[in-house]
Amino acid sequence: MHLRGFRIHPGWFSAEDQRALVADLRQVLTKAPLFQPITPRGHKMSVRMSAAGKYGWITDRKGYRYSKVHPQGMHWPAIPDRVMDAWYALANCPREPECCLINWYSEDARMGLHQDRDEADFDCPVLSISLGDDALFRMGNVERGGKTESVWLRSGDVVVMGGDARLRFHGVDRIRFGSSTLLSKGGRINLTLRVVT
Ligand SMILES: O=C(O)CCC(=O)C(=O)O
Ligand SMILES: [Fe+2]
């Protein structure tokens, strides 16, 4: 995909680092369990979510927003150091991420085209880490509609979406269930690091 501000770092996390990262995330998820997000219109999203950091991104009947607390009321756990390392190495941004959103895709999960625009500072990129099964990622335009381009993201890949790519519509059409052995039950985890305020 040739788009200014969109960079894929294939296999940035080694197989060993990916396993360590999954162990880190298991710790996070015991403190902040995955939940089923509901859109403001009342539809269940097919991914399950949680977060680490000062803020998590949540959605329910009241709307999309960043929140300092999990839907069950607790604060979010700290962002694992291994995740922060990717930000320091690749984000090229003087600010620290305030949210590590965790999306868990089971066999039939997908994510419709959307913009990430609930953050205050669009000069900072969104950094995305893929773990587990391959995902067909689609990138569109700053407005809905028009031509899109797709790319398969694999376990260990890190994507930086900044500059011209920061406010483009994007989504995940599907995962290739069982394509990776990283997660014992299959599926995919995506982490996105965001500067929120
Ligand atoms: O799962 C992905 O690769 C993308 C996730 C995403 O776009 C988001 O969480 O806003
Ligand atoms: Fe997004």
From TrEMBL:
<keyword id="KW-0560">Oxidoreductase</keyword>
<dbReference type="InterPro" id="IPR027450">
    <property type="entry name" value="AlkB-like"/>
</dbReference>
<dbReference type="Pfam" id="PF13532">
    <property type="entry name" value="2OG-FeII_Oxy_2"/>
</dbReference>
<protein>
    <submittedName>
        <fullName>Alpha-ketoglutarate-dependent dioxygenase AlkB</fullName>
    </submittedName>
</protein>
<dbReference type="InterPro" id="IPR037151">
    <property type="entry name" value="AlkB-like_sf"/>
</dbReference>
<keyword id="KW-0479">Metal-binding</keyword>
<dbReference type="InterPro" id="IPR005123">
    <property type="entry name" value="Oxoglu/Fe-dep_dioxygenase_dom"/>
</dbReference>
<dbReference type="InterPro" id="IPR004574">
    <property type="entry name" value="Alkb"/>
</dbReference>
<dbReference type="GO" id="GO:0051213">
    <property type="term" value="F:dioxygenase activity"/>
</dbReference>
<feature type="domain" description="Fe2OG dioxygenase">
    <location>
        <begin position="96"/>
        <end position="197"/>
    </location>
</feature>
<keyword id="KW-0408">Iron</keyword>
<keyword id="KW-0223">Dioxygenase</keyword>
